[in-house]
Amino acid sequence: MAIVDITIIPVGTGSPSVSSYVADIHKVLKRHEGRVEYQLTPMSTQIEGELPVLFAIIQELHEVPFTKGAARVATNIRIDDRRDKKSTMAGKLQSVQSKL
């Protein structure tokens, strides 16, 4: 199971606001509920699932701003792919919180 932190930045939209793009991206993620878990944060979105599935969904998400007229899209991806034990977003948070 992998965890991906993704930020999708539409460029040249005529407005500094990107919330409508983020909302449309999350509508796509909602269609994939059951295949992945996801969490919106103030600066990015985190997605948890099997790596091949995540790559396919990331490509779909990257296309969203283009469908809304963006001429350019910059997508930043960080992947945490731990294979020695099961790693989840909730488990990572619990591990830190247990040490506080």
From TrEMBL:
Gene3D superfamilies in alphabetical order: 3.30.70.930
| SUPFAM superfamilies per the UniProt record, alphabetical | MTH1187/YkoF-like
User: What Pfam families does the database record attribute to this sequence?
Assistant: Thiamine_BP (PF01910)
Domain Thiamine-binding protein residue range list = 4-97
A cellular component term (GO) from this record?
cytosol
Q: Which PANTHER family match?
A: UPF0045 PROTEIN ECM15
Family membership:
Belongs to the UPF0045 family.
Annotated protein name in UniProt: MTH1187 family thiamine-binding protein
